């Protein structure tokens, strides 16, 4: 099977220097922090692509920003993604390192459909998706996040 890393190698072999990664078809899961995760950093969790950590009671996307290097606390609420291109933050870092070694600049395309003017629920979901795109882009070392906010 072809992978994102294969694609980066292909871009390099073709003499190209940039590649856009699409952040589409993801499944978010919102769940409480597990006891064994308390005290660990989100980026250290195996087989978990954590893109958001909220304190208990956070209700919308305007909660304070989080850091992948801040230890998880008891009662935190984690949002993880199931994404075909990475299973955990270590995957993002490996992909970033391969791209850098091959001198391929990465960009990330946020989800195509965002709705900032619809219902409150649609607006919050859209804000979160753009925020998650930034988290993934940072992990990949992507220079840009592309969005289509006018849809």
UniProtKB/TrEMBL annotation:
Keywords: Endonuclease, Hydrolase, Nuclease
Coiled-coil blocks: none
Gene Ontology MF term list: endonuclease activity
Keyword Lipid biosynthesis: no
Segment forming the signal sequence: none
Protein name, as recorded: AP endonuclease, family 2
Originating species: mine drainage metagenome
């Amino acid at each position: 099977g072809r992978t994102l890393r294969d694609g980066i190698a292909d871009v390099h072999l073709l003499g190209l220097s940039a590649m856009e990664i699409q952040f589409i078809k993801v499944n978010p899961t919102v769940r409480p922090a597990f006891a064994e995760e308390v005290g660990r950093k989100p980026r250290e969790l195996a087989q978990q692509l954590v893109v958001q950590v909220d304190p208990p009671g956070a209700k919308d996307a305007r909660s304070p920003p989080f850091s992948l290097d801040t230890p998880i606390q008891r009662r935190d609420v984690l949002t993880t993604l199931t994404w075909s291109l990475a299973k955990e933050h270590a995957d993002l870092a490996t992909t970033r390192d391969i791209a850098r070694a091959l001198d391929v600049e990465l960009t990330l395309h946020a989800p195509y459909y965002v709705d900032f003017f619809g219902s409150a629920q649609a607006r919050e979901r859209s804000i979160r998706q753009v925020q998650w795109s930034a988290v993934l882009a940072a992990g990949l070392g992507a220079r840009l996040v592309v969005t289509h906010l006018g849809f």
